[in-house]
Every structure is written in C-alpha cells, then in structure tokens.
Amino acid sequence: xxxxxxxxxxxxxxxxxxxxxxxxxxxxxxxxxxxxxxxxxxxxxxxxxxxxxxxxxxxxxxxxxxxxxxxxxxxxxxxxxxxxxxxxxxxxxxxxxxxxxxxxxxxxxxxxxxxxxxxxxxxxxxxxxxxxxxxxxxxxxxxxxxxxxxxxxxxxxxxxxxxxxxxxxxxxxxxxxxxxxxxxxxxxxxxxxxxxxxxxxxxxxxxxxxxxxxxxxxxxxxxxxxxxxxxxxxxxxxxxxxxxxxxxxxxxxxxxxxxxxxxxxxxxxxxxxxxxxxxxxxxxxxxxxxxxxxxxxxxxxxxxxxxxxxxxxxxxxxxxxxxx
Length: 324
Ligand code: GDP
What we know:
The chain is α/β, with parallel strands linked by helices. It has helices spanning 3-10, 20-33, 56-65, 83-90, 101-115, 120-130, 158-164, 186-193, 207-216, 220-226, 247-253, 260-266, 301-323, and strands spanning 12-17, 37-41, 47-49, 52-54, 136-139, 146-151, 154-157, 171-177, 197-202, 231-234, 237-238, 241-242, 273-277, 291-294. The longest helix has 23 residues, at 301-323.
C-alpha cells in the first residue's frame, strides 16, 4: 500500500472553509475521508434576518455535502419554492435577502434551538446528522463574530455589502467585530491538536472575508502553528481572477495584486506548502514554499474529488519529507 493510499484509509484531516468555494473542495474531501474530516466553517457572515439566525456558510456546507445545494448558484437549496418571500413582501418586509421555503426551516429551527440554550456547534452537529453527513461540520466559534466592512458607503454589515449592495461599494478595511473576545469551538481546537492529524487544508475560499475571520478567533492561528501536520492552502485565484465573487476585486481595492502569490503571502507563517492552478505554474518559483501545481478549477464532482485526492497525496508527501 502506498503512503498516499494508507493516509486515504487512515488519516484525519481538518479543512478551513467559507461558503461556496470552500464547500466545493470540502465535498471532494468528504467523499474520500467521511468521518475522518473535520470542517471548521466561517461564521463571520452570520446575521439576524426577520428575527431568524442565518448562518450562510454553514448552510452552504451542509447543503453541498448532502447534495441538496442549488447547482446553479452553489448556495441555497435545489428545487426551492419562494412562497414565503412573496407573502412577506406583501407585508412590506425587506426582500433583499432571499429565504426559500425549505431553507427557511433551517433558520427557524436554528433560532428556536439557540434560544432554548443550545450552542451553534450542537445545532450544526444535529443538522449534519439529520442530513446524513459523516464529516464533522463545526462553526469556528459559538460566540458572535461579525464581519463588518468599511466602504465608500460607510460601515456595512457583511450581508449588506455582499447581498444587498451586490459587492459594489469600494472596501477600504475589513473588521471582525467580537473576534477578540470570541472563544474558539473546542472540538475544532481538539481536532487541530490530535496527535495523528495528517493535514490541515485551507480551502480555496476568500482569504479576506472567509478565512481571515476564522483565523481571527483567538487560539485558531496558534493551533495551526502548533500542529504537527502539514498546513496547505489552495488558491481561490486562478490566472488573476476569482472563479466566483469579489475576491480579486477586494484584493485590488486593498492595494494588493490579485494573484495566487499574494494569497500564499497572505497566509505567511502558517503554511507548509501551497497549491496553485496549472494556469499559474510560472508563479510557483516566486513562492518560498513547496508547491503543488494542479487543476484547481472544480466544475464537476470528479474535479472536486481529484483536487481533494491531490491535496491528500501532497500532505502525505510533505509528511514523508518532514520525517527525512
Ligand atoms: P463565499 O463565502 O460563498 O464567498 O465562499 P468562499 O469564500 O468559500 O469562496 C469564494 C472563493 O472561492 C472565490 O474567491 C472563488 O474564486 C473561489 N472558488 C470558487 N470555485 C472555485 C474553484 O473551482 N476553484 C478554485 N481554486 N477556487 C474557487
């Protein structure tokens, strides 16, 4: 059995993920690893809407891993109906954040359970079980951390910027309110401290809006630095462009060059190695890190599993290299 095959059968892995981009790779990893995968998910995008607690990145992860996700958008549920939105619009309620009829159940039940005293970790674990997901899906923290952006329209809560304003305002700074006093999810910390951990994979999520909030929770960055396993990140930028969303635009607005090398440098001090797309093969020499150059564009399920397999093999290689 090769080292790669052995780690596919035995190793435990942790992924850090935002929403759509992160969930795509998480699905590939979950296919290969099942319950040996722990996914720490960004909750900086969480907010209250119409009195309901909405956790967009957790829901995207749950829907993607249970094959319920809307394949056209990458978020929300497939075959959704919108009677609630039509009915509430008639009452004059704000309609900019759309909640589908089936999706609504997630938010109503989460709100009820949180009000009854359950933690977000417990509610998320319950949802994963209900949807038959073997991987552990964890919020980065049970405490509120809220991503707030400073823009030319003033300070905006993340969903106001992302959904209501469609990412049009120009960002000058990104803040994670509450992060300083937030406690990290204890199960996430334990997963990172496991002695037989085989790798940590920072998914190709938006580094500034999806991964940074996770890293801002005290203890998580330190746990990444302390863990024995290789820590790798996959670039969400391919040939200077984001596959989806405002990542490249935000990088430019923050005065950085929108390319894979900037992403790797953003994670300086945390990474053992970096994964970049074949289109950016020429940039590998600019990194002072071991690199894997592979196809990182995930269109089909096969693409997601192939990239996940390449990441696991890469971690196995890095572990072997570290033992020499
Ligand atoms: P969000 O919270 O829904 O914005 O999701 P994420 O932060 O997890 O993902 C957004 C990032 O995923 C964007 O920067 C995209 O460029 C990246 N992304 C989406 N699909 C892919 C893909 O197939 N390959 C790679 N490498 N990046 C992707």
